[in-house]
Design brief:
This protein is α/β, with parallel strands linked by helices. The chain is built from 12 helices and 14 strands. The chain has a 6-stranded parallel β-sheet. A 3-stranded parallel β-sheet has the order 6-8-12. It has a 3-stranded mixed β-sheet with strand order 9-11-13. Helix 7 runs parallel beside helix 9. The chain binds nicotinamide-adenine-dinucleotide (NAD). Nicotinamide-adenine-dinucleotide binds next to helix 5 and strand 9.
Length: 326
């Protein structure tokens, strides 16, 4: 089948969608990538650099209209409620993450789209999963509603491929660290907040313990992984909807120490809250050999390179009086 050419990104205003959409527009052409979200985006680059539409992922009729109107052949479904938010409203988390995904898969089946992309997460793992070098195939018994939706989502994508031939692809993203859009309420948000607070206040109250180690990835690697999987030849993909992808694993203490190399006055206190339990149920490190073998995944950023880049970007923005402008 020929390559995808017209993409609908639902959840485009989020932490990942807001950087994935411009990257897709650069590769596939600005007019060929429709950004959509449940929120207004007037005046933002996403709304000005290409088509922008309001779309609730739970509204199937709206998705159908956008597919027909824009001759869409691929949906990237980035709309979701993440772990910490999802645990506050678990029923809503199921509705958006699962009913929304079923809508995109059904739309892909009926309109014979070439591809659907829907991210999974390290939240598919749970306390019974090996936490070090977590394998691709392992125990998936999450203890958060978010994790339950992500396991179910992987299975749904797999089912739609087997049963209906829908080319549904997905990655188990680790915690994503980025400087453009603030994260939307996940457990790994501390690894982003710490940079803003280090620059703004010289101090951060961290909501997980110092020894908490989780798998993380810098946004340029997240975008690269996503674009590479979207462009991978269909016949090479055996796992398709649930690839482990690893980049960097570090403890909260190691991240703070790395920041201190650049900002020696920086201080941190550890005040674990309910998110500690979610973090404790997730892996420390990930085995991503399958992604490397099947479609050539390799990350570029380690802890030192990511920290240096984050601090440079945010320091420049603060000097321009727009630390939170992203
Ligand atoms: N950011 C991470 O660290 C991370 C890690 C693992 C997996 N993921 C996954 O990646 C995907 C994108 O995550 P993100 O970090 O960008 O999330 P985010 O919370 O930053 O953004 C989600 C976007 O979805 C939109 N949205 C919410 N409900 C909607 C609805 N009903 N219809 C349409 N849009 C709706 C929101 O307005 C928001 O812009 C999600 O599937 C998430 O589970 C993210």
């Amino acid at each position: 089948m020929s390559e995808i050419s017209r993409i609908l990104v639902i959840g485009a205003l989020g932490q990942i969608g807001s950087e994935l959409t411009p990257a897709l527009r650069q590769r596939y052409g600005a007019d060929n990538v429709v950004a959509a979200d449940i929120r207004e985006a007037k005046g933002t680059p996403l709304a000005e650099d290409g088509p922008y539409e309001i779309c609730d992922v739970t509204d199937r009729t709206r998705i159908d209209r956008l597919i027909t109107g824009y001759k869409i052949d691929c949906i990237a479904n980035m709309a979701a409620l993440l772990s910490a938010v999802g645990e506050k409203v678990p029923q809503k988390c199921w509705e958006v993450n699962i009913n929304g995904l079923v809508n995109t898969l059904e739309a892909a089946r009926e309109h014979e789209l070439k591809q659907v992309f829907c991210p999974s997460s390290i939240a598919v793992f749970g306390p019974n999963t090996p936490r070090d070098s977590t394998p691709q195939e392992t125990v998936l018994e999450p203890t958060t509603m978010y994790g339950v939706t992500k396991v179910s989502g992987e299975l749904l994508c797999h089912y739609y491929h087997l049963r209906f031939g829908v080319d549904a692809r997905g990655l188990r993203y680790p915690g994503i660290i980025s400087s453009e859009t603030l994260p939307g309420g996940g457990t790994t948000d501390y690894a982003v907040e710490i940079f803003y607070k280090a620059i703004e206040d010289g101090h951060y109250d961290c909501f997980v313990r110092e020894d908490t180690m989780l798998p993380m990835m810098y946004m340029p690697d997240c975008i690269k992984a996503t674009m590479d999987l979207l462009a991978a030849p269909r016949e090479k993909l055996m796992h398709r909807s649930n690839y482990n992808v690893a980049a960097i694993s570090f403890t909260a203490g190691e991240l703070a120490a790395e920041i201190t190399k650049h900002l020696p006055e920086f201080t941190i206190d550890y005040k674990p809250d309910e998110r500690q339990a979610y973090a404790d149920s997730w892996p420390r490190t990930i085995d991503d050999r399958i992604a490397r073998e099947e479609w050539g995944w390799t990350p570029a950023y380690d802890l030192a390179a990511m920290t240096k880049d984050m601090l440079e970007v945010l320091t420049k923005r603060q000097a321009a009086g727009a630390l939170y402008a992203g």
